[in-house]
Amino acid sequence: MRRDVSAIVVNLNGLPYLERCLESVEGCERIVVDHGSTDGSIALVRERFADVRLIEQQNLGMGAGNNAGMRVASGRYFLLLNSDAWMAPGAVEALVHFADTHPEAAVIGPRLRYPDGSLQRSVRAFPTLWRLATEYLFVRKLAPHTDLLNPLYVGGFDHDETRPVDWVSAACLFVRREATDEVGLLDEAFFMFSEETDWCYRFRQAGWSVFFYPEAETVHVGGATHRGTLFRENLRGHLRYFAKHHGLAEAERARRLLLIGCRIRAVLYKARRTMYRDGARWLASGSVTSLLGSPR
Q: Residues with Cβ < 8 Å from 255, sequence gap 6 or more?
């Protein structure tokens, strides 16, 4: 068993995929943080994975769940893996090798693929008002494969080469313990969404690097546990990031931009009209300060 990697899986009713997830990191120290599953996940872990450390706690968000796992982990690297994701053969070894030969790397993101084998774009740029506008006001639709009009999703990058990036999707993050000892763990004020954006920003500000590394691959179903029901938390994550790193005035500008975007989408997207209307109502209900303090 390799004890230099601690694989941490935050789980909430992830039974359809959890077994495959844990099998893919066999040989690592494995830690499951469960947030109140009622689908038999806990029984599966206890019956099938005797060596897995199981932590049961109140659901305080993905950041809090991953932090709980990292606090008890013993590895020099943390592998944060969604419960609806699993590592391809040899991926963990590839990530260890890359991290060992790139001591400046705090975070490494592997290439993500959907279960059908297609690419799941996972490289992102740090949010700015312009970058949010290209997404929420449909600007990126004009030229989705360019960095100019699709900068938030780094549209000009084909995910085919190793490169330093702003941040990578939290579906799978390979993180150096030494870097977290310096910068700190995830900010638990982010319940879900944007917590990895904030973390990577803090690593970058402290002089560490974040890498995308396509030689390691992870399969990620995507949205399996929350099933797209946390759109308001996505919006709140944007606002919290702007307020934390750019100030309340810029966060208010972001709130107004997101409000316009949600209202437009509520008209154009019939299938998701309720979701966008709810998001728009929430964004219109108060200032950034009040929204960040409002109940989930």
A: 239, 283, 287, 288, 291
Q: Decide: 66 and 8 in contact? Cβ < 8 Å.
A: yes
| Phi and psi at residue 109, to the nearest 5° | -110, 125
For residue 233, the surrounding DSSP H or E stretch is helix 231-246
Across residues 12-29, what is the average pLDDT?
Answer: 95
* CB contact set of 35 (below 8 Å; sequence gap of 6+): 10, 11, 12, 57, 58, 59, 60, 65
- pTM for the complete prediction? 0.93
**Which spans in 61-101 are helix H?**
62-72, 91-101
The whole-number pLDDT of residue 141 equals 87
165, 66 in Cβ contact below 8 A?
no
Residue 285, judged by CB atoms within 10 A of its CB (0-12, 13-18, 19+), counts as exposed
Instruction: Determine contact, residues 152/158, Cβ cutoff 8 Å.
Output: no
Task: Give the three-state DSSP class for 6.
Answer: strand
Give percent of the chain with pLDDT exceeding 90.
Answer: 89
pLDDT one-digit tens code per residue, 155-193: 999 999 999 999 999 999 999 999 999 999 999 999 989
For the stretch 128-140, pLDDT in tens is 999 999 999 989 8
Provide the sign of the torsion angle of the four alpha carbons 285, 240, 186, 196, taken in this order. Answer: positive
Cβ-Cβ contacts under 8 Å for 125 (sequence gap 6 or more): 131, 151, 152, 153, 154, 165, 166, 167
pLDDT at 187: 97
